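sorry for the late reply, my laptop died twice this morning and i had to redo everyting from scratch. anyway the thing you sent over, i finally got around to it. pasting the sequence first so we're on the same page, its 396 residues, then the predicted structure underneath. double check i copied it right bc i was rushing
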Amino acid sequence: MLTLMTMTAGLTMGWDPKGLANTPLMGWNNWGTVGCNYNDSYIREVADSMSTGGLQAAGYHMIILQGCIVPKGSRDNTTHAPIVDPEKFPNGMKSLADYVHTKNLTIGITTSTGTTTCEGFEGSYGYETIDAATYQSWGLDMINEQVCGLPNGAVPKTLFTKMQTAITASNSPMLLYMDAQGQGNVETWGPSIGTVWSTSTGLNITTSTYNDMFNDYNNDLKFPNATSLGAWQDPGLLMVGSPELTPEEWETHFSLWAIAAAPLFTSFNVVKPPYGVMSVYTNTDVIAVNQDPLAKMGLLVVSKNATNPSTVNSVWVKPMSPAAGESQAAAVLLINTDDSNTAEIILYFADIFPGVSTVHSVRDLWEHKDLGSMTTKFSASLSPHVSIALRVAITA
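ok and here's the structure:
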């Protein structure tokens, strides 16, 4: 049986000399909503909206540009440095990065370990040193490196290592996001090379379904011990705001990523947010679970679905830093994973705090409501795909 005491092993810290990733990264990526239909002016507008619209205050600090940055073959004839699309970025990338930094935000761009990115633009294969030095000169904070366009026989681990070595040689604090899409057993070597790595092929905010989301989460769940301080595995972009999910499913989705200590990257229209999404993205109680400094990934615990006792995969638990006066604390997520039937989901406190029958503090993280102390268990009758997120603690 998994308990809070058996969920505390971690690995060494990932590469993060600037301290940007002491907790899971939070930010925005263009690809899910606008694709290549963006330019310098639009990204400045995104930065403005993040700065003034509540996202930055909630902890979202990074903008990642994906695709359509350096056209295929666009390099300086002498230095071989990459050259950004002059129509999209007429003032150059450094000017845009400088503007983003004035908003107290950070910025990264996408390249590839291969000759082309997944979107068909210039990759970094064979140019790792010059590319890292160029990105450093532009003032970037992250390189998002894909695994597309690989020559025959190329090994992702080797190529990611080359890029990280080049970043180190450039004396830059840039982070490396390894968009490995779960390939090459990245969970075994990713933490020793970069800061973030993807465990799936990714989600699309406009077309992916609730079941797609759960499949990507389950890919992340396979490697719980890979996550540690400064080293984060990413199950995919957040889909909060997707028309394919209900508002209740938005909450379940956001809670899952929070309890997994996953990066919180979104792709929704931050300039004109869809109705209802900001209250999810800026839920500080749930974000606090994600950003907890213990840096532990939540796991399934053995608990019961009272409606269907054979189902034991409906409760997730994440160790949390105890507050003053507490001896142990945890975040708990109860989900009715059934697609069609309402179910009573039960959490037995002894399953997470061995030998404890009474918890002294229970807080509902979506209702922002303290429920007081409870004995033996917490139960809830939940509709399909609906969840309850709690923070529970026992006093010292």
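The radius of gyration is 21 Å.
thats about all i looked at so far, will dig more tmrw
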